[in-house]
Fold this sequence. Notes:
The protein contains 8 helices and 10 strands. By secondary structure, it is α/β, with parallel strands linked by helices. Strand 7 (167-172), helix 7 and strand 8 (192-201) form a beta-alpha-beta unit.
Amino acid sequence: MNAPEKQTTPILRRIEEIVKDVPGWTPADQLFTLFNLVYLTADLRGDILEIGSWCGRSTAVLGMAARLVGNTRLVCVDLFPEKNDWKQNADGSYSLSVCIGGRVYSGYRDQRVWKEPFEREIAPVYAKYSSVYNVFRKTIKDNNLEDIVSEIRGNSDAIKGMLDVRFKLAFLDGDHSYEAVCADIRNAERWLVKGGWLCFDDAFSHYEGVDRAITEFVINSGRYELCQQMTRKFFIARKKT
């Protein structure tokens, strides 16, 4: 597709095309909203942060937007769990434990993945691909985003030591427990520029921990404006200028 064709092809159609074969749960309407937030903040200086990338479904869309606005990079943080990192619990649900650099990271302890969705949506990824990380890298390569995207294996604590970095948008879609979401908010907003957007997946849908953290540390904090649920499970807020 040449430049004029790209400029006249609806973004929603392009989004649907680039994510059609990428495993994940982020719906097209949410991806479209994410794209628009990046595109409409092109005048802000800063990069994009994604906490929770999985196979790169939302990463591809954020990367496309970053490419179009120019001078914007995308930093992705994820545990990228391997198949053997998942363990089935006594009640049939699944949680994970990942060792990275000698440190153990746990996930889905409070908000577990139940057997049916795990076997329907997660197990097939490991059956088809050697690892989640390999799928993520394939997504990046297939969309020519190698020069835009950089990834960190870990949780949001990994960005604490980053120097001279500022984000104009942070998309939080990591562990959905209350403590984890609170930590992600604290870590992300430290580097979020004034007028930048803080965005959440799975908000005010089925995850009490996510809802509670957003309510306490975003909506009621006094530090954000234009707080709004945009789609069925996507919430955004702008850091006050």
